[in-house]
Design brief:
Blueprint: E1 11-14, H1 21-30, E2 36-39, E3 53-57, H2 69-83, E4 87-91, H3 94-102, H4 104-107, E5 111-112, H5 118-125, H6 127-137, E6 144-145, H7 150-157, E7 164-168, E8 179-181, H8 184-194, E9 203-207, E10 216-223, E11 229-241, E12 247-253, H9 257-270, E13 274-283, E14 288-295, H10 313-321, E15 336-338, H11 340-354, H12 358-364, E16 368-371, H13 380-403
Parallel strand pairs: 1-2, 1-4, 2-3, 4-5, 15-16
Antiparallel strand pairs: 6-9, 7-8, 7-9, 10-11, 10-13, 11-12, 12-15, 13-14
Length: 423
């Protein structure tokens, strides 16, 4: 794909250091001659080590919109003046999507971005808000309950149908843990592990829909200022990290027209604008796709979804916001994408759980057209990612060794664990 003549405003991607979505944007748009900037991080991250990273912007708290929002707006205002009027903002996490929607009027002085209301962004990003919207608009959704505290969790545990999935109500980069419980005792243990505190747990109990990894579907799309879907893709997860319940470590593009139509109707009715990343679970028992989560922003695995002309949702947004036509999607089923570090870990888990052998693993790589971090013309992010994986693996082994030493103790209410590599 090539860009038609006209101005090529810069892009600023807002996202935490471990997210690979920003790296995908850098490569996708950078190869078209667009300058893509990232947020400054304390440590060298895979996206910021890319040759397609045009520069770094000092804003936020290590890639997150924490701290003083007035100071953060001043930092972004300075960045907007420096990068040029009309710089395009891409939200790479739910936190940034909420921040951009909350401060849309201030940010619009220098930046261009889709304008979805703050209320809708917050509802979609939180599992309880999504549950209410899906129920109201007839989008299939699993049954969910939201325990207010540890006592209510204990009271509910005996009345649920097992197995039960436990998830955060509101996900953040450091709050992404998931668990499946087969009994009340397992449920309460998992609740204890995942809860942020006994009185404000941020944990929900969700009906578990049986099936394999390939029953987990992903929708990626871009909706314009009139909430028309200009680019829509679907695909499946071949493997996940953590195994059976996490992000896509190996995914495949498979266009599912009924699912596309269902999603476009739902988000169109809501007036959604911008990039969206959605997870569904197909239930063989009734033939329906149940929505699991909606991320009102760029997804980490969005480069699974690239059509025959190279179009993806980031390019679709850039074309639309710069006044260029967005070509019709011409997707071909079978394109695979791999998140290398996550798949190395998850494959060892699938070996223990399902007996995944080396030959079967190699066969699963047929059709892989792109890696999350590896690229022949941009190898540095891959080596940066592998180094980080090695460091974290060795660090984890050392921490487990220390916990086995005499006198080692742990706190009564640990922070909710993050069970996977960030999207």
């Amino acid at each position: 794909m090539t860009l038609s003549p006209g101005p090529r405003p810069a892009v600023l991607v807002l996202g935490p250091p471990k997210y690979v979505g920003p790296l995908g944007v850098m490569r996708s748009l950078g190869r078209l001659g667009v300058a893509v900037y990232a947020l400054q991080h304390r440590s060298r991250s895979a996206p910021n080590s890319s040759r397609y990273c045009a520069g770094q912007v000092a804003a936020g708290s290590d890639g997150r919109p924490g701290g003083d929002e007035v100071a953060l707006l001043e930092q972004l205002d300075a960045a907007g003046r420096s990068l040029g009027e009309g710089t395009i903002l891409v939200a790479g996490s739910d936190e940034w999507a909420v921040f951009v929607a909350r401060h849309a009027s201030e940010l619009a002085r220098h930046f261009r971005f889709p304008r979805t209301s703050l209320r809708l962004i917050e509802e979609l990003a939180a599992k309880d808000g999504l549950f209410r919207l899906a129920t109201k608009h007839g989008l299939p959704t699993p049954k969910i309950v939201f325990p207010a505290d540890a006592d209510e969790a204990a009271a509910l545990s005996g009345s649920l149908s097992y197995p039960v999935m436990l998830k955060p109500v509101q996900s953040r980069p450091d709050v992404q843990g998931k668990s499946v419980a087969d009994s009340p005792a397992q449920l309460l243990r998992a609740f204890h592990d995942l809860a942020e505190s006994p009185s404000a747990p941020n944990v929900m109990f969700q009906e578990y829909i049986p099936g394999s990894d390939e029953d987990v579907w992903i929708f990626n799309g871009y909706f314009d200022g009139q909430s028309r879907c200009l680019a829509a893709f679907t695909g499946v997860k071949i493997r996940q990290h953590p195994a059976k319940m996490g992000i896509a470590s190996l995914g495949e593009l498979r266009q599912n027209q009924p699912l596309i139509e269902q999603t476009c109707r739902f988000l169109g009715d809501l007036g959604y604008q911008g990039i969206v990343d959605i997870g569904y679970r197909y239930d063989k028992r009734d033939g329906r796709h149940y929505v699991l989560d909606i991320n009102p922003r760029l997804g980490g695995a969005f480069r699974i979804f690239v059509d025959e002309n190279g179009l993806d949702v980031a390019q679709a947004m850039y074309l639309d916001l710069t006044g260029r036509p967005v070509p019709s999607v011409r997707a071909r089923d079978g394109r695979r994408w791999i998140k290398e570090d996550a798949d190395l870990i998850s494959s060892s888990h699938y070996h223990r759980l399902d007996g995944l052998g080396f030959r079967a693993w190699l066969r699963s790589l047929r059709g892989v057209r792109e890696g999350a971090t590896w690229a022949w013309d941009d190898p540095s992010p891959f080596f940066q990612s592998m180094f980080a994986l090695l460091r974290e693996t060795l660090g984890g082994k050392f921490r487990r060794f220390r916990r086995r030493l005499p006198g080692a103790t742990g706190g009564a209410w640990p922070a909710a664990r993050s069970e996977g590599t960030s999207a």
